[in-house]
Amino acid sequence: MAPPAQSQRSPSPSQPSGKSEVSDLKLQLRQLAGSRAPGVDDSKRELFKKVISYMTIGIDVSSLFGEMVMCSATSDIVLKKMCYLYVGNYAKVNPDLALLTINFLQRDCHDEDPMIRGLALRSLCSLRVANLVEYLVGPLGSGLKDSNSYVRIVAVIGVLKLYHISASTCVDADFPSILKHLLLNDSDTQVVANCLSALQEIWSAEASTSEEASREMETLISKPIIYNLLNRIKEFSEWAQCLVLELVTKYVPSDNSEIFDIMNLLEDRLQHANGAVVLATVKVFLQLTLSMADVHQQVYERLKAPLLTLVSSGSPEQSYAVLSHLHLLVMRAPYIFSSDYKHLYCQYNEPSYVKRLKLEMLTAVANESNTYEIVTELCEYAANVDIPIARESIRAVGKIALQQYDVNAIVDRLLQFLEMEKDYVTAEALVLVKDLLRKYPQWSHDCIAVVGNISSKNVQEPKAKAALIWMLGEYSQDMQDAPYILESLVENWDEEHSAEVRLHLLTAVMKCFFKRPPETQNALGAALAAGVADFHQDVHDRALFYYRILQYNVSVAERIVNPPKQAVSVFADTQSSEIKDRIFDEFNSLSVVYQKVTSSFFQLYVIGIFCFYFRPFGFLKHPICLLKENNVRLRRGICLNLITKFVV
């Protein structure tokens, strides 16, 4: 019986069927290379498209290098672009082939069309072959003096690329001096911005070995250059404005009148539609007025409106970035923002990360005049379908109570939470009631009356269960069933997986024993036996300690385990004031979004007045990479200026 016939699949037009396809392309390109027949450019386009598509999917078409270069002798700019793309891709892998491109790229650098001149110069500088740098100096020098601004823009970046290939060649050709001249005199603002970016990187790198470079770097923040850039700032693109404003933050004015002059120049930048420009301007205002306390507070008042406008008008990602910076300002001066608390109310369609940040800010701006309205709003969020946000809102209510604002009403609200039939609400409320009792012992009677009605079987979360057990031990004299509840928990010791709960249970049974010995004696013996046999080291050590101290002297044990309690006045902050100040110094950066100093997630290298950031596992090429990793996408130009200079 004959084998079944195999279905023959025709090859895709975008993929070669084998080496013969590349050979056919080579033959066709060679035939068209010297042809001047009508329509030859259209034929070349089709062949170039095939070559680029093969290259894109990873097929080696480097054997076509010579033919591609020969076919590039045309005035068709589309063909030029595709040829430059091909050349740039294979020149890095095959430096020997790059030699074939020098002549036609240098020829194109003198083309009549400025677009072709710019593209050729960009491709020439992108070859990144060290033994070809001598061929870059001439075209770059001509490009920097070109009459067309696009060519000059490309040439400035080309100088920076040359510096990274061969720093000595770049410096010996005196390109930094030419860039400085263009920085001060060029009519095109994009050329000026590129010069500023390139000079910062070149002189910062050279400063470690050259005193002259150090002096030149300092001149970038001199009064003539700063004022020259500020007077033209409206002409710059959004990215360039951020670059200029970042430079202005390093400038130290000579007197107060100069500070006010700079702020007057930048006043209208606070109304800019781009969030990055607004945040960069805010940083300038804050840095300039740090030494002027009264003016600094007025600056906070002035910054409220533009920042709140950005929060409400942008995308959720932009809102989160701006809210993070606003949150930093709120933490430093909450009273200034206390009257604007309604702007911080959560909207139903906002992402959870925005809502969470708003809840933190509402907690910070609460005071005697607005506590009732804020707590009422937060209590509404407790019934939110988004459980994490409901939890955060309950915690926010507790934090406001710990700030001693309207404690009576808040305690009543928390006790109402305990009566709700939602496990997560009860769990969060128990933790907060425990903290409230530590600070306000006078509320123990009202709280314990409600807590006593909660069954320990209905509380499953470790923190909430630990809080309930703490209250059972601390106020066992006021809770009739406390010894029996603790005894039932000890009986289920092996079923309790949380070491935190077992530690609290040991301490609570000890406290209950000192207050009601006859009813707790059996539970204490069982708890100590289970604790000593526990596999967790901390639980084992605590049980053994309690056992031995009871053996030594019961009175001493009572003084240690159950001493007279004093109300807690202040709870420990999660961040020290020093860390907050350092984050403030890094305003308009990812440090504010992460609420961490840069050194905790980047390796920082400081060269002179400029900073370079590197990932511990390699170079960071652009801050958008880091924001994407944290699900914070950039829209409408909102770019946090974490990196003063990009590492190319």
Mean pLDDT: 83
Placed side by side, the strands forming the largest sheet appear as 1-2
Number of strands: 2
Separation of the first and last Cα atoms: 66 Å
Structure explained in plain terms:
The chain is an all-alpha fold. Helices cover 65% and strands 2% of the residues. The protein has 34 helices and two strands.
Brief sketch in words of this structure:
The protein has 648 residues and is mainly alpha-helical.
Spell out the blueprint of helices and strands:
Elements: H1 19-33, H2 40-56, H3 65-71, H4 77-93, H5 95-108, H6 114-125, H7 134-144, H8 149-165, H9 167-172, H10 175-185, H11 189-206, H12 211-219, H13 223-231, H14 238-248, H15 256-266, H16 275-288, H17 293-313, H18 316-332, H19 334-337, H20 352-365, H21 371-381, H22 387-402, H23 407-418, H24 423-439, H25 444-451, H26 462-474, H27 482-491, H28 499-515, H29 517-532, H30 537-552, H31 554-561, H32 577-585, H33 590-594, E1 603-607, E2 610-614, H34 623-629
Antiparallel strand pairs: 1-2
